[in-house]
Write a structure and sequence with these properties.
This protein is mostly beta strands. It has one domain (2-7, 16-109): Sandwich (Jelly Rolls), CATH 2.60.120. Helices cover 4% and strands 54% of the residues. The protein is built from 1 helix and 9 strands. Strands 1, 2, 3, 4, 5, 6, 7, 8 and 9 form a 9-stranded mixed sheet that branches. The radius of gyration is 14 Å and the shape is globular.
Amino acid sequence: MTENEVKIEKSVGVNIVEIIEYAPNSVIVKSIIKKSTGNITAMSFDTGEELAKRTSPFDTFIQIIDGIAEIVIDGKSTPLEKGQSIIIPAHSAYNLKANERFKMTLTIIKSGYE
């Protein structure tokens, strides 16, 4: 997995789909915003790639911006296509699978859990 930070000019419209590229046999991760209160990340997955099972102490919002993803939350598989979103509940085990390549944004807001 390759991770970079993207410098996006504030107050200027951007197309996130064009900011994150596909790479053969890879998962590409680009931080859009990374703050102590939350993160927004863009990711691309080549066909056959997977994000290992993990959990987060916070709700996680995923939106598919290209292709089709398979999201598995607590053992339940949900396919999502371009334009669809899902909220992964805090403390749920989840992983992502690329049966075909896809791009997504992942948003975590860390405040409000006090």
